[in-house]
Structure formats: C-alpha cells, structure tokens
Design brief:
The structure is a homodimer. By secondary structure, chain A is an alpha/beta fold. The first copy, chain A, is built from 22 helices and 15 strands. Chain A has helices at about 1-15, 45-55, 90-105, 160-175, 195-205, 220-225, 235-250, 280-290, 315-320, 380-385, 400-405, 435-445, 450-465, 465-475, 480-500, 535-540, 565-570, 580, 595-620, 630-660, 675-680, 680-685, and strands spanning about 35-40, 65-70, 80-85, 85-90, 115, 125, 180, 210-215, 260, 295-300, 330-335, 355-365, 415-420, 545, 585. An eight-stranded parallel beta barrel of chain A has the order 6-7-8-9-10-11-12-13. In chain A, strand 10 (about 295-300), helix 9 and strand 11 (about 330-335) form a beta-alpha-beta unit. At the A-B interface, helix 1, helix 19 and helix 20 of A face helix 1, helix 19 and helix 20 of B.
C-alpha cells in the first residue's frame, strides 16, 4: 500500500503543473500585448469592451484600436463592422460583440478583414430549467447558478454576483443576449416579491453584458400566488393581476425581456383549463407586456395521451390558431415534432405558421444525448435542423429562413437553447459540453456557420497552448495535425455516433424510465400511458419495426409540404435516417446497402460503438497537448461513454432480436451483456448522476 | 410489457425442444444397436460393463462382443487389451475400462484396433474440498454432492445413492479410481463414527465403478476428536488412536484408499507443532494404514510468512527429508511452486526427491482460472507441466516420468486433481468445465495424450448430434468443419488467453482479495502478511517489474537442475513465459519481439481480451449445432468472460502504468474502466458466485 500511495503523490505533483479546471471556458487568459484604445463613448458595456481588449490583445504590441458607435444602415441591431483598425456599431453592445470577435480572430489566428456581422436572430436566449430549490431539471452539471435552497436562498452574495458576471461575459462573448432564469415547469413563487428582488440582482449583474432577463411563468399564478378564484385569461381580475405583476417587474427591471410559458403541456395549467385557446392565453400576457416592450415565448410542446400519434399533435393544435396571436407572441417550437431525440425530422410547424412568429427551441443540455457523460457535439444536429428545407415558400425555405424573419414578417425573431449550465467547476459537467453552449451562441448569431467552423474555433480557444507556446506550436503545424484535426473529427462525428449506438435509422424515444439516459426499449410499466413508453415508438413485433406515419398510418407525413410529404410517405424515397420514424417495415426489408433492415440495424449499432472506441484512441493520443486535469477528466468520461454505448447496442439488439429471432451478423462483435441483466439496471441509470 | 412476456414464452417453447442440461456429461444416451455379449465372469462391475455395452452399442447390429478376464503380463494393473471382437483384462475393472473405451471409439468414429492400454498412474484420484456443512472450498458448481447441513445431513437417501452412482460411472468412464471425499482443510468430525457410516454408504455406491474412497484427515484429530492430550506422532497413545481409527474405517470399508493430509500449512496443525518432522508425522499414519494396504498422500504445500520467497519453501522444507518416508507415503506436490496460478514453472520437487514417492496435484476447479465463469480448458496447462523436462535423470526426465515410476522406484504411483464438481445440474457450473474433469481422468490414465486429442474426444462425446443424425452430420463433414474444429480451437487457445489477460510473461498471484477471481495487483490491506498480497509477487516500481529469483535474488533458480538453473537465471535465455517469474526487469527491457517489456505487456493483455472476443464469435456461429439450453448458458458465460477479461486488462495496465508513467501503445484498444472504480469492486468479485 505504501508504494501505491507514494506513487499517486508523485504522479499528481508531476501532472498537475498545467492543470486547468475548465472554468475559464473558451475565454482562457493568455496574457496580452499593450494596446491603445480610442473609444467614442463611456458606459458599463463599453468599459467591458475596453477591459477585454486590454487583457486579451494578441495583436501587435502598441497598436491602436478604435471603438466607434456610429449609425450605419448596413449594420442591423447589435451587429458590428469589423476592421483591422477597430470596431464600429450602432450600439454599445455591438461594440462589445465586435471586440469579442476581434479577439477571437487573434486567438484563432484568423485574418481580420473589413466585414459586417449581423445577428441571424434578434433574441438569442438561454432557457434554464432551474428550480427554486436549486435543482436543475435535466441538468447534469451541478446545481443552479441562480437559485439555491436553504435559509440564505434569497441572499445575494459577492460570490453570486461574481459568478453571474462570469456567466454574462461568457454569453456576451458568443452573442447570447437573453436568459430565462427558471424552469418552464414554473413555480408560482417565482413571481413573488422576494423572488423578484433576486431576479433584479441577477439582471443588474448581467445588464452590462447585454444579457436580458426573462422568466418562465405558471399560467395559474393568479390563483396560486394572487389568491384569485380563477386564472381564466378572459377574466378581468386575472388580466389586471398580470398587468400589475408585469408593472412590478418592470419597476425593478426596466429592460426585462418577457415571459416563457409552458401551458397545457405535461400537466401544466393553461388556458384550455378555462375553455380558452392557446392564443387567448398568450395574447392576454402579451397585452400586459406590450407597453414595456416585453414578449411572450409560448411553447408548442403539447401532446395528450388520447392522440394516436404524438408527433402530429403540436401541429394539429397550433395550426388552426395561425394568425390569432399578438405580434409580441412567439411560438417556441422544439426542433423536432417529439422531444429532442438524437435525431428527428424538423417540426412541421416551421414555415407552416405563416401569420405567426415562430422560434426554434434547441436543447443544449444533453437530456437525450448522453447527459454530461457522453461526448456529443450538437452543432451538426442543429445545423441539420436549421438547414432543413420546409418548402413552405418554395425550395430553399429552410427552418432558419422560416424563423429569422427572412421569409415571413415577424416583429420579433428569436431562438432558444435549453442551457447545460450548473455550478460544476467547468460549468457543463463535461469539458466538451462547453462546445454546445458555445455552438448555440454562435449559431444563434449566425445560423449559416458550419459545425466544422464552430468546432474549429472552439477547440482553438479552449485547448490551444498559451501565449508563449502559441506561435511555435501553432505555426509548426504539429498542434493542428496532432490535436486540432483529430479532435475536431471526433466532435464532428460524435452526434452521428450517438445516433448509431442509440437509435439509428429513425428509431426514437426508446430510453429507459424517466431519466432518458440508458436504453429501455422494453420499458412499459403497468398502467403507464402508452406514449410515455418506448414500445409506442418502436412498434417492434415479429414481422417488423417502426412507426407507421404514412398516409396508411397516422398520416403525419401530410403535415409536411410537398415534395416532402410524398417523399417521406414512400420508403423507397424516404431518407434512411428517418426510415423507421415514418415507416413500419419488415425485418427483411432491403436497404440501399443491400442488407436487410435487421442486418443494417445491427451494423449501425456496431459502428456507433466502434466510433466511440475510436474517440478514446483519438483522445489518448492527444494527451501531450492537453493539461493533465482536463485530459484525465475527458478520458474518464470517454471510458464510461464507451461502456454505455456498448450497453445501448447490446440492449437494443438483444431486445429486438427477441421479436425477429434472426442472428446478429457474425462478423460484428458479439453482445457482451445479457438482456436479462440490462433490463434490471434501469435504476442504476437514474442514479448515475 | 404484454408483448415482451408473450415473446419470451414463444421463444422458450420453440427453443427448448432439444434442450440439454449437461447432466449427462460426456455419456449422453444416444440409443443403441442390439449386441451379443459373452462374459467370462459375473460381478457387480462386470454387470455394469454389460449394461453399458447394451445401452450404448453403436457398432453393427447383432454383433458379438467377448469380455474376458485372462492374465496377461503385458497388461498392467487395470489396463486392458482392446480388439474389434471385445475386451481382455486382468481385472474386472480392466474390463469395464475397456468397454468404456470401446464405446468411446464408436461414438467418436475412431477405429478399434488390437491394442493394449495401461494406466500411467496407478492411483488416479479426485480431491474434493468439500466441507461437512456441504459448502465446497473453491467450488463454483453448487454444494457438495457428498455432504450437506441440516437435520438430515447424515441420512442417506435414494437420491444421494443415485447421484453417487452417476458420479462413479462418470469417473469410471475416464479411468478415475479414487476420490477424497472431504476438504484438505479437514474437520476432525470427518472421522467420527456417524460420519464414517455415511462414508461407508458412499464407498458402497462407488465400489462397483472401481472408485476407492479416501479421506482428508486433520493431524490433530487425536486431541480434537479423541480427547487425547496431544497429537504428537511419537506419542504411544496417539499412535494407538490412529491404529484404532484406521481399523474402525477398514471394518466398514475394506477397500478404503487411505489418507490425504495437509499439515503445517496455512494454519493447519501438523507434526512440527510437536517438534516432529513431516516424515515422522506421515510415517506414523502410514504405519497404521500399512496392514490394510492404505496409503498416505502428504501435501508439500507449505510456506511461512518469514521466508523471503514463497516459491522456494516446499523444496527447502521437503528435500532434507528425502529417503525418510515409508513406502506407502506419497508426497503430493502442486504442479507449480506457488499455488495453481494460470502459469507457473513446474515445482522443483519433481524429480528432485529421488528416494521418496511423489505425486502431482493438479487443480481441476478453476480457483485461479476464472471459476465457473470463464471458459478455460486446462489440459494444455497440465500437458505443459507433465511434459516439462526436469533433467533430474538427464534429458527427457519429464515431470510425468519423474512421478509415474518410470525413472524412480515407487511402490505406489498416483496423481490427484482437485475436483470441480457440485450439485449444479451440469455438475461443473460451466458446460466447458466438464472438459477439465474429463481431461484430468484421461491424462491420469495416459499422461501422453495431447490436449488436442482429449478436446476432440470430449467435444464429440459432449456435443455431437444424437444417433439418428450422427451418420449424416458427422460424415458430411459439416459438423466437423463448423463446430468441432472452431470449438476445439477455442478450447485449445483458452488457457493461453487467460494467461494473457490475467498475468502474462510470468506474472503471478495478482488477484484481488481472497476469492482469486478478479484482478487486484494493488491489494494489500494493512497488517496482512506480505506473501498474501500481490505487490509481494509483482514487485512493480518506477523502474521495473517482476520477482528476482535469480542467483542475485532469492536464488530459487538453483532449486532446478542444470541446464534449467542457468537458463532461468539469465533473462536472455529464460523462456519469456516465465520472465517475470524469475526476473525483475526494467520497463524498457527489450523483448524478443523488439518491443519494450511495457509495450509487450500491453499487447499481451490486449491479445487476451481479443481472444475472448473471438471465442464469443466462435460460439455464436456454433448456435445451429448446439441444443438451445447449453448454447444460451455458454453464450451468457462468454459474455461475462469477455467483460471480466476487459476488467483484468484495464486494472493491470492502469495499475502498472502508475509506476512507469509510460503510454499504453496507441494502436491497442483503450481501457474502458477507471482504475479508481476497479479498485472499489473487490467486494463485488467475492460475491459473484
């Protein structure tokens, strides 16, 4: 034992020299050259811009930089004009954004040319699913940075303020300009006077960074918090209650952003409880917010246990209301029709609601994509959604263009991302999960960026050697070849790998239990509503597998505009990535590869596992280029990632094999677990975090 | 849930049609053709021979077979002469053995030629480490078939008798003619009058099969059971007590075999407690047994915590006693100098004790080779030991020839195997563990048989299709090509695979805790005697690894006869399979492969894991040729086998890497577990069975 302990100590001392916790995110301090800054104004935000320049300037020592607020019609909103000589913008925030971009260019060794950068979406908003007690729904990175339980839960400490400022800075650096501080499954207490004082403190800390504060509200707050007999949106007292509450909020937070509402969804109260429509409910709130410039983000995530196909329901419920919403209501639509699955086709509401503002809701936290255990870079998934063509105004009517105001008139445009942020030292639980926060911000600013570009930027910012080593290491090409290139490759392949080992070919929602981590294609406790159980989604039987959403089935295909509807309707033309989403097909169905559907499924699962094995190799080879702490933490996560990918493969193949009784092709690696055992570890999954 | 349950049922019905439990071992009933048998005598044993012939005859229908007891000097002991026309022998048992061989030839489609078969060892003995309460030390196949706890523990039921007969038949079919019924860590109660009545019942059941009964005895039985003040072997009362006890035993069991004694070993009492030598202790018992033809098997498995090298101790303690033992004492020596490790060089006592009978002790139960979880065919290990050249009487002085009476005069020759038998339906826990019982018997009968031959026989007997299918299946070559050949290949490689993923290159005894299943190179609880902890054996430090047993170290090498001593002493000539057994070498030591020692270790561990992965493929491909039950049970074991091989690799590489700080070569698969976690699962291992 002596020997071992001794060794550990030696080890630790030697390796920890360069350790990084990851807390600095993509904003790692690397020293700076002196710089002269000329600024055309003075304000808290501009001070931040100056400060960032001075502590981060990597350009020529003694160079001059001008920060100039000067109206320019080619610059939109908080956009900016970048030049080697400095930054020009219409707003202070534009200046700050420009400064971050300028420093980013320096740090990533990219040239600074004269160019204008305007945001794709006006409101780029994080949604925190943080509860008043500090827990975070679907949070895998520790407790809330905003809320906590205990006797001092509402006290604002210096530590709180410092953390909120760091959070504000991180968001500003990637263009995020709004944050919803609490869970969409909202507590009415959020709107209490005491709570609002804490909200004000947060808003004050974030304001210089241009991050506006929003709140999720519970639709029944007038009754629950206000003591009214009803929360009927057409009731005069209710209307009055909301108006007064909004006024109270704005008196504390003059730039308050607005409300996010989850209504008549998964047990949450809503206008339908009083016989009113979503439009009536949303408009009532919108009217209260309008005088102050606030907006309502009203979620379309609705489904009931009666409908035969959950995928159809948001469309069915919201399309009839198109045109009935106020102009400061935006319908917040999840990227896919079900629920943040590893892969879904885009929601048919995008582009379909032509007289209503619609905003995409993406999920940064990896609820269905491996929590903070698996390395899954989400930008490729979001790129896939945003660039999907809805055909709603002819070819090229991408989801991005259908929601950013290009194709349809929207008073406000917005995009939301469900945050993956907590009190963990590295903010996101997994060092590579930071890339998803980063990518959301970058895509929200510029929906045309590629996953590759964003990954490249993020890796350079997050892992490149510090200033002293930069020139040698980066210029020699050694770092690029041995670290950047393979690690980027790993990131870019990681989401497809997850799809492969979790649910390839259009399979979806075959998770165990309620934790949405491990596999549970068998999960169906007695009495549970069918649409909360995997067999509802995979429909596996002796003959085949998949959910029939064709015209012969639930006809979800017809919620899409032609030519998509017909394309999806026919298995011969349906993209294979969506095959089992739209079709129930025989196990022997012949795939484009020439394999049967069952064999193809087996190979996909296998390839997912092998990809993760490859990721382990890539990361281990990268060891010389990473500080010891982050190297070891990621290495450990990848080990678990591999084991869990293996479990996914084994569980799904062995489970489905029970139905089809076909052999797993003999040239792939055999399952290494018994189905019986895997079916018993549900509980383990739910306690893994 | 409904769907799933339904599927299970369908599955079970369809697959169980051909299910076999494995209880029939290598003696599966396959129907028979009529046969005429002429027999030269009448007895219980000869009746069995007739019965076997009639129920198992696969030759020409209506053929005649003669069984003839007729003295022939070329036939030794219970040997036999085989011919197409029948069996000739000196003894009834010889006839029975001949009949089993004749039937075996028919079932395995091998020709029957005129030939004589004589046993290599006169006494071919199983050692059961069964406790009076029915538990089995190092038993992984259920409780004892001889003993049980509870109020009816000594009652002999019909079920008991039937099981003992099945056991006797199985042993007779492979030539085993003795069995020690109880643990070498013996309870004095074994010799009580009540217990002896049960022993008599067992002996009666086994007698017709030619299986003699032996008992392990506790050296201090005179005091503990007899109430004497001492158990000093030179004390007259003690001598008298043993004489009386032996007489009592023989009055019940006239053909009783004798005693097995573990004395002054691991806390067991022995003659040294009274200042006497092993010889004095053993001789006292031998004198009591001599009038009845009984023998003493006295174990040389001794070591103390004081010695610097456990591997040297049996030799150091027993060599000075050479020539002092009675001729009915046989020193029972484990195959290697330490303790049934996956690989050890042979014990230097073999061939060295020239004036004392010595018998090898092999371990059939897989204490250190994966229990009944891992598929490890042990014949290659035993073949390796038995064919090792001791050089004690010049080249060719193999361990086999040094112990079977060929090289040295021995009044008795014997070989022991620690049994792997319990109440499990398939007797051995793992279907393939039956092959080890089988191989022990076959090697004890004919130490010149190859592992390949034995595996071939066993597979044909254990898995070949039943009579109706035999001709077509076997003659078509399909079964041979797709089942026999790959499965045999798997068996023949399995022990080397285990060495690779557990302890390659001469590493030994790096098991966790006391269960001897999982890895524990770190295992060293505070206060535990060093020679019970792995660091004592692997000696890993920053510079290197291995136990220095050279002349510069413990000098265990000089216990071997030249040229071995010098060969082992020099790393350049020491076989690499024993390298770290005899040498402490730098991590960078250059191996014959050109790799460094560390890299070579990594590749060995990796190759072990990959071999098990290959075994899984072999077995899965064999599915069409095996009944559903045995297929599924072996498949499940192989899955766990794979997972545990992976754990071995990860644990050992990550643990040793702490010392040397060298990378694991990047072209091998990465560890998928964290060392920290693996170090916590000791307890899991000990409860795995």
């Amino acid at each position: 034992m002596r020997i071992i302990v001794g060794t550990f100590i030696v080890c630790f001392v030697a390796l920890s020299a360069k350790a990084e916790t990851g807390h600095e995110l993509w904003l790692r301090h690397r020293g700076a050259n002196p710089v002269k800054v000329v600024c055309s104004g003075e304000s808290a935000t501009l001070s931040l811009a100056l400060h960032e320049l001075r502590q981060g300037w990597q350009g020529e020592a003694g160079a001059s930089v001008a920060l100039e607020i000067r109206p320019d019609k080619s610059i939109k909103g908080d956009g900016y004009k970048l030049a080697a000589s400095g930054v020009q913008a219409n707003t202070e925030l534009g200046i700050l954004y420009g400064v971050y971009e300028l420093l980013r260019r320096q740090q990533t060794l990219r040239p600074i040319q004269d160019e204008i950068s305007n945001p794709s979406y006006e409101r780029r908003v994080l949604n925190h699913w943080d509860n008043p007690d500090g827990s975070v729904e679907r949070g895998y990175a520790g407790h809330s940075i905003f809320w906590r339980s205990g006797t001092d839960s509402l006290a604002v400490t210096e530590k709180d303020r410092a953390l909120w400022q760091e959070y504000g800075r991180a968001n500003a650096s990637i263009g995020i300009n709004g944050t919803v501080l609490n869970n969409v499954n909202a507590s009415p207490e959020t709107l209490s006077g005491e709570s609002l004082i804490r909200v004000k403190a947060i808003a004050d800390a974030l304001r210089p960074y241009g991050v506006k504060t929003y709140l999720s509200v519970k639709f029944s707050s007038p009754s629950l918090l206000g003591g009214l007999k009803t929360s009927d949106p057409l009731d005069a007292q209710v209307v009055q209650w909301w108006k007064a509450k909004v006024k109270e909020i704005y008196s504390l937070i003059p730039d308050f952003g607005g409300f996010l509402v989850k209504a008549n969804s998964e047990g949450q109260p809503g206008p339908q409880d009083y016989g009113r429509t979503h439009a009536q409910g949303a408009n009532m709130m919108a009217d209260a917010l309008k005088p102050f410039g606030g907006i309502v983000m009203w979620r379309a995530f609705v489904y009931s246990s009666e409908d035969k196909d959950r995928a159809r329901q948001a469309y069915s419920e919201f399309m009839p209301l198109d045109g009935q919403f106020r102009d400061n209501v935006i319908i917040q639509v999840k990227n896919g029709p079900i629920d943040f699955q590893p892969r879904e086709p885009f929601s048919p509401l995008f582009g379909a609601m032509k007289k209503t503002s619609v905003m995409p809701e993406l999920q940064i936290t990896q609820e269905y994509l491996g929590h903070s255990i698996q390395l899954v870079y989400l930008a490729p998934m979001w790129e896939e959604t945003l660039q999907s063509d809805t055909y709603q105004k002819g070819p090229g009517s991408t989801v991005a263009r259908s929601t950013d105001g290009t194709l349809f008139p929207q008073k406000y445009s917005a995009i939301a991302g469900v945050a993956n942020i907590g009190l963990d030292a590295n903010w996101c639980g997994h060092h590579f999960a930071q890339a998803n926060w980063y990518a959301f911000g970058r895509l929200a600013w510029n929906s045309g960026l590629t996953s590759d570009t964003i990954a490249d930027e993020w890796i350079r910012l997050t892992f490149s050697p510090n200033q002293k080593e930069t020139l040698n290491a980066l210029k020699s090409g050694d770092w690029t070849k041995n670290f950047l290139t393979p690690v980027k490759e790993m990131m870019l392949r990681s989401r497809e790998a997850a799809v492969n080992y979790m649910m390839p070919l259009g399979l979806h929602h075959i998770f165990a239990g309620t934790h949405h981590y491990g596999p549970g294609p068998w999960y169906a406790p007695k009495g549970m509503r069918p649409d909360w159980t995997p067999p509802y989604y995979h429909q596996a039987d002796a003959l085949g597998i998949g959910f029939d959403r064709t015209r012969a089935g639930s006809n979800a295909v017809d919620q899409y505009r032609e030519p998509l509807a017909s394309q999806f309707n026919d298995p011969a033309t349906c993209p294979e990535i969506y095959l089992l989403w739209f079709h129930h097909l025989p196990w022997t169905y012949r795939m484009k590869s020439g394999r049967t559907l069952w064999d193809e499924l087996c190979y996909r699962y296998e390839s997912g596992v092998l990809q993760v094995r490859q990721f382990q190799k890539i990361w281990d080879r990268a060891e010389p280029y990473v500080d010891a702490q982050r190297f070891a933490e990621v290495q450990s996560k990848l080990r678990r990632h591999y084991r869990d990918a293996q479990i996914w493969k084994d569980a799904c193949l062995l489970y489905f094999q029970q139905f089809n009784r076909l052999p797993i092709p003999y040239d792939i690696e055999r399952p290494v677990n018994d189905l019986e055992d895997l079916m018993k570890i549900d509980l383990k999954w739910s306690h893994h975090n």
